[in-house]
Design a protein that fits this description.
By secondary structure, the protein is an alpha/beta fold. The protein folds into two domains: 157 residues, Rossmann fold; 157 residues, Glycogen Phosphorylase B (Rossmann fold, 3-Layer(aba) Sandwich), CATH 3.40.50. Helix 4 packs parallel to helix 5 and helix 7 crosses helix 12. The radius of gyration is 21 Å and the shape is globular.
Length: 341
């Protein structure tokens, strides 16, 4: 329960809700705060929580917990039926080579001991097979669902509102977005970035300095996390959705933008290009501010491009998976585990 406004938290809670609706009896266990950097006390308390579970219990756990407790996974693997949700490998968070390598070693070891890994994209499934040695028959791909959302109305004041939703952390690479926009000062736009600004404070400070150095502090707004009502209003007023991530295990915020009929400009970012229709988005390579700037210039300067992408988004929104679809895939995989004691 380390953070309630991330795609991972939304995925986990919605999956639990849908599985309960399918008849699973669910008991939630909240581990101590501090993951994915648990201290010794949190490790001990978490190990005890697993130890208290009855033999044969089916345990569905997030990678943020079990992925950094490989010793618990090893100790409990024969006694419990362990299943781990992997949104994207923690080693791809890009907090620095040393941290990322440690995450990689930890997750690789933890995954050796689980009955099943639930992943949100084929991209992540391939990464686990190729880099962590997880066999294909121990992986189920269950993309996130989307809810029916009202179509965005736009700003309607002559200045196009760009929206980006996601925690301000290195992997999201907002700096590339700032660099791209710095070449478009003469265009009428403003950017709102919604997402956690406390998880990586040094990174956020560096990004604010970058915004100021580009002279964009009056046009780029880091508003932090918003409650549901405020976030809904931001979505309602958006004209264009933008994303500059280096990697996404799926891209749930982009899917939300599509569900609202918004034209999208985004980097390919791992799994994004796996499912996002090019009729709904301009997709450019990650880490390339020039390519991102060129794409943004098109949607800012060409109403016909925005209209075409909006039409594509409204078509794709009808094909996005629903949460019932997500749960059905996981349900089938869990039933297989239960029936093969």
């Amino acid at each position: 329960d380390y953070e309630r406004r991330t795609g991972g938290w939304v995925y986990d809670t919605r999956l639990i809700k849908e599985l309960a609706a399918l008849g699973w009896r669910v008991r939630e266990i909240v581990l101590p705060a501090g993951f994915p950097y648990p201290d010794e006390a949190a490790r001990a308390q978490s190990a005890e929580a697993f130890a208290q579970l009855a033999d044969g219990t089916l345990v569905l756990t997030d990678q943020l917990c079990l992925g950094v407790l490989p010793e618990v996974a090893q100790r409990e693997a024969q006694r419990l039926r362990l299943v781990m949700i992997v949104h994207h490998p923690l080693m791809l968070e890009q907090y620095g080579a040393g941290v990322d390598d440690a995450f990689g070693r930890s997750e690789r070891e933890a995954l050796r001991h689980v009955r099943l890994a639930i992943v949100t994209s084929e991209t992540t499934a391939k990464f686990l097979r190729d880099n962590f040695g997880v066999e294909a028959d121990r992986i189920v791909v269950a993309p996130p669902g989307t809810d029916s959302r009202p179509l965005s109305e736009g700003s309607r004041d002559g200045e196009l509102t760009l929206l980006s939703v996601g925690a301000v952390v290195p992997r999201k690479d907002h700096g590339v977005l700032i660099d791209a926009l710095s070449s478009l000062r003469d265009e009428p736009w403003r950017l709102t970035i919604v997402g956690n600004i406390k998880r990586a404070p040094d990174h956020v400070s560096a990004l604010r300095a970058r915004i100021a150095a580009a002279g964009l502090q009056d046009r780029v707004h880091l508003v932090g996390e918003l409650d549901d009502v405020a976030l809904e209003e931001v979505w309602r007023q958006a004209d264009i959705y933008v994303a500059s991530s280096r990697h996404e295990g799926f891209g749930m915020a982009i899917a939300e933008a599509i569900s609202r009929g918004l034209p999208v400009v985004t980097t390919a970012a791992g799994a994004v290009s796996e499912w996002l229709s090019p009729s709904a988005a301009l997709i450019v390579p990650s880490g390339d501010p020039d390519a991102l700037g060129t794409a943004l210039a098109r949607v800012l300067r060409e109403p016909q491009t925005r209209t075409a992408l909006m039409r594509g988004a409204r078509e794709q929104r009808l094909r996005l998976p629903r949460w019932e679809d997500t749960a059905a895939r996981v349900d089938a995989a869990l039933l297989h585990i239960v029936s093969n004691k």
